[in-house]
Amino acid sequence: MNFPSSKMWLGGLTVVCVMVLLLGGVYVRMGPVTTGKRTIHRSRFLRIKGYQQLHSPGGSQNDKGLLSAIATHWKSSSDARNLSVKEQAVSTRNMSKEAQRTTDKERNQGRTVTRDQNLKGREGQSKTTSSQTVRRQKMSLVGQKEEQAVRKENERQTTHTTQKTKLQLTQVNHRPVATKKSVSKLSLCPKKPPDLVGSLFINAYAKVNLDEVKKKNPGVTFGGFYTPPDCQPRDRVAIVIPFRDREEHLKVFQHYMIPVFRRQLIQFKIYVIEQAGNCDFNRGMLLNIGVLEAAKDGDWQCFCLHDVDLILENDRNLYTCPERPKHLSVAVDKFNYRLLYSTLFGGITILTKEQYWKINGYSNKYWGWGGEDDDLYKRVVNNGMTIMRPDAAVARYKMVRGTHHKTSKINPARFSLLSTATHRMKEDGLNSVSYKVTGRKEYQLYTKITVALNGHVNC
Ligand code: UDP
Ligand code: BGC
Ligand code: MN
């Protein structure tokens, strides 16, 4: 038997050295990673890195930078272990850019805030998810530019609250409305909501599945309340709908309008005010009642008085609180998208609480179809205000007809009532409305208040 030659020994040694080097390399590339005083599995690190690169295109950093950012993050975060990989990645990215304005403590508080805002125990939904974190940070960036506006807005809200106290006719129960305190950790929502899409296709004959609508609108809590989860809304709007026997229209309304309100980043609640009995319909009185009931229920800055059968065709028509009483339904398909006459103030209007109280709301005397909106216009003008309208290109609506469409009887007394409108406005309105609530039911996407009206004519 021959002994291996020195050449063979040398070859063997080289192979062993190469193997050692290779295994060492594999260990360095695949083994655990040390960040500060802690060690994490490399696969976890790579997931963080991958997520960071995915969500920070162009802004990614080298491994060393990322590791030190993770270490800093863990050092400052007592509950880091409880965060998901995605959350860690997101916060790491932001910390490394020194743009992280929300500490973990604040984020935990944010969870409580969302939970507070969600009424009637919708557990789990309020939990801050990673996509919420990303969205919130996106909003926050837009909001950064408006940092000063936040302070101004808070001052404005304080003033508003003071004025409100004077205006309140009945005691306010703030149940569903996010208060200044509960949302103060979030940046103010951007003035231009980023998710608007513009022109919308509306099928006025759509057969609506309400379960689908519910699923597509997470965050709307029982009773129809919604507040943007990622930013502090600039506008708190009660949507008040006069109603009787228009179930199909109400479904179409929910299907199309709720996603629009959500995209517009307003805080809202939908109040459907149903007239009990079969007497002539009184739209003005129902709207007064709706405003009073809504004002008792929450701290609304403005009230949108909305016919149930009008569906918006362009989400850039904003339901935000206006400087002056605003007419929203400018161009309706039924009228070939033309404004019927220059003082038209029917269909959909939006007024601040101050404006609505100043004009004493609607007259309660219009039973049947027509005139109550013209009366409202007179009240606005005779109280020293002018109305405003959005551009007809965005303020476009379809009026739903559908199979079942009950209309009110035309009110023959409307012209004589109109001729005395300004004389009556101080004592006929919000301050004289007489009614009894006979039912109150909270549905998933709206609250229905059924009312018996006093002072009927033509029953
Ligand atoms: N309305 C209702 N039931 C009625 C009559 C009217 O719910 O029987 C409500 C509904 O919100 C409707 C609004 O009052 O959109 C205005 O009535 P309508 O649509 O008949 O009037 P028009 O649009 O023809 O002026
Ligand atoms: C009525 C209003 C109505 C308008 C458009 C007017 O004659 O008085 O109540 O909104 O027509 O239909
Ligand atoms: Mn109508």
Report what the structure shows.
The chain is of the alpha/beta class and 459 residues long. It folds into two domains: 39-158; 167-405 and 412-453, Spore Coat Polysaccharide Biosynthesis Protein SpsA, Chain A, CATH 3.90.550. It is built from 15 helices and 13 strands. The strands form three sheets. Strands 3, 4, 5, 6, 8, 10, 12 and 13 form an eight-stranded mixed sheet that branches. A hairpin with a 4-residue loop joins strand 12 and strand 13 (447-453). The model is unreliable at 45-62, 65-128 and 153-176 (pLDDT under 50). The structure holds uridine-5'-diphosphate (UDP), beta-D-glucopyranose and manganese (II) ion. Manganese (II) ion (MN) binds at residues 307, 309, 399.
List the helices and strands and how they pair.
Layout: H1 6-30, E1 33-35, E2 38-40, H2 42-55, H3 63-76, H4 85-96, H5 104-117, H6 130-144, H7 147-167, H8 180-183, H9 210-216, E3 225-226, E4 236-243, H10 247-263, E5 267-275, H11 283-297, E6 302-306, E7 310-312, E8 326-327, E9 331-332, E10 348-352, H12 353-358, H13 372-382, E11 396-399, H14 414-419, H15 421-424, E12 435-442, E13 447-453
Parallel strand pairs: 4-5, 4-6, 5-13, 9-11
Antiparallel strand pairs: 1-2, 3-5, 6-10, 7-11, 8-10, 12-13
Helix pairs in contact: 2-4, 3-4
Bound molecules: uridine-5'-diphosphate, beta-D-glucopyranose and manganese (II) ion.
Manganese (II) ion binds next to loops.
